[in-house]
Amino acid sequence: MKILFWNIRGLGNAARRKQLLKLVSFHNFDCICLQETIKASFRQRELERFADQRDMYWGWLPCIGHSGGMLMGVDKEVAQVTEEDHRVYFQSMKLTMKADGFEWLLFNIYGLAHDERKREFLKEIQLKIRSSFDYWR
After folding, report:
1. Which of 58, 92, 97, 116 is the most exposed, fewest CB within 10 Å of its CB?
2. DSSP-based three-state secondary structure for 23
3. CA separation (Å) from 94 to 39, 64, 131?
């Protein structure tokens, strides 16, 4: 399984989108996790271009002003998304692998660089991890 994690620092720039398209085309990723997209939403046509002819399940968190924003994509032929969750600092997808039925969680996390929000960031991630461990028991 190939997964791309990338703090892309803005998908509004045409050169950055082109860079992403080349990378996805070359490596044939099964999952794409982008942080700091600085986009409020995505058009279907745009997502299809990022998928490079794969049928992908997409989910995103909008940016807040001129920071943040996350995008996750999962190839539907590789895994089924059975659950999706998101908060301020993360998005997650529960995946069931098509080949063997194995279930797992994929996290896309983005925390602001400001010290005054680190405690809030860590608490949110900690709560998600704790609730996930309870789920898998």
Report:
1. 116
2. helix
3. 24, 25, 13
CB 37 within 8 A of CB 71: yes
What does DSSP say about strands 103-109 and 90-97: parallel, antiparallel, or unpaired? antiparallel
Strand 103-109 and strand 70-75: pairing?
unpaired
User: pLDDT digits over 74-112, tens only?
Assistant: 999 999 999 999 999 999 999 999 999 999 999 999 987
Residue type (1 letter), 54: R
Cα–Cα dist 98/96, whole Å: 6
CA angle 36/67/27 to nearest 5° reads 10
44-51 vs 14-27: helix axis angle to the nearest 10?
A: 40
Q: Model-level pTM?
A: 0.93
Q: Is 120 helix (H, G, I), strand (E, B) or coil?
A: helix
